Automatic annotation (TrEMBL):
Protein name in UniProt: ATP-binding cassette domain-containing protein
GO molecular function, one term: ATP binding
Key words, A-Z: ATP-binding, Nucleotide-binding, Transport
Domain of life: Bacteria
Domain ABC transporter stretches: 6-219
Alphabetized Gene3D superfamilies for the sequence: P-loop containing nucleotide triphosphate hydrolases
SUPFAM superfamilies listed in its UniProt record: P-loop containing nucleoside triphosphate hydrolases
PROSITE patterns: ABC_TRANSPORTER_2
Amino acid sequence: MKKHKLEVDSIVLHYGQKSVLSDIYLKCETGDIVGVLGRNGCGKSSLLKIIFGSLRSEHSSVRINHRYTPCSFRETNGVQYLPQNGYLTSASKVEKVIKLFVLNKDHQQLILSDRNIKSFRSARVKELSTGTRKFLEVMLLLYSESKFVLLDEPFSGVSPIMIEQLFMHLKHQAKNKGVIITDHLYEHIVDISSKLMLLKDGRILNINGKEDLVESGYLMD
Ligand SMILES: Nc1ncnc2c1ncn2[C@@H]1O[C@H](COP(=O)(O)OP(=O)(O)OP(=O)(O)O)[C@@H](O)[C@H]1O
């Protein structure tokens, strides 16, 4: 299967006088799960928004398969994004959004018959608990047609058993997609990621294991 490549470089972002991102480079190919760790406020969400194209920065170059893509969300089957606070509107019906986001009929059935979702198929999104709603939102993106998925805190508020299920779906779907994922449940990110990065002082560091996270001051010794 053809590999697709998402590359991001030269990202510079300030909010007023405050420097948040300086000269970030990141690459994600289909088949990769790139985990981005970092302390609160280090700029993880801002970075994902810039990659998606919903936040403009002073400098950025986002390329898909070597083609400059400033608004990756406009690309057909390009990039999908889970913001921290979700994206489904509360009045939408669960069954309807599944059919809207997921085109493959087998995948629609897979989600509709999932044990967390099936009893809510006729319900509206607002009737879902926060964790179930997040589970559904992640599943919709993982089973969408897009080549890349950006996940901002997909595990927060989700119960351990649903996290395990998401792990399984992530691993399965990442065979054909590139995933960039960030969460404060760092052990999950360390477990699931094929490449691990740490965002610190506006820069991206490659991380090879827990020792690097201690050395960089992200974790206590
Ligand atoms: N619209 C904004 N205006 C001014 N400052 C902002 C704005 N959005 C974010 N910031 C600041 O930019 C920095 C990075 O924010 P961002 O939300 O990207 O961090 P984060 O790593 O995702 O944080 P968290 O892990 O807490 O979600 C923070 O210091 C934040 O206060």
